[in-house]
Amino acid sequence: MATGETGFDDVTYDLISVQYHALKGGHDYGQYVRDAENAGRDEIAAFFREVMEQDSQRAHRCHEFLRELGGTDNTSPQGDMTGGDPDPNTTR
Prior knowledge:
Elements: H1 10-38, H2 42-68
Helix pairs in contact: 1-2
């Protein structure tokens, strides 16, 4: 597996990049929907909603691929680096 300049293998980095941009776009498109609605352009607002949904699906698919590559589910509370284990020094 090739490792890029970031220390991550290239495929992992690429998936993270696509996921980030899909999530960022989804956030931005919410404003675009509101802008189109405020302008009375319902068809354009619907288009932006479609694009937002596609980006959401794209981000989810990246998440699944990252999990397959050995990532975590990342469902722990933000800042909890233990993966949810209350005591990382214990063995299971």
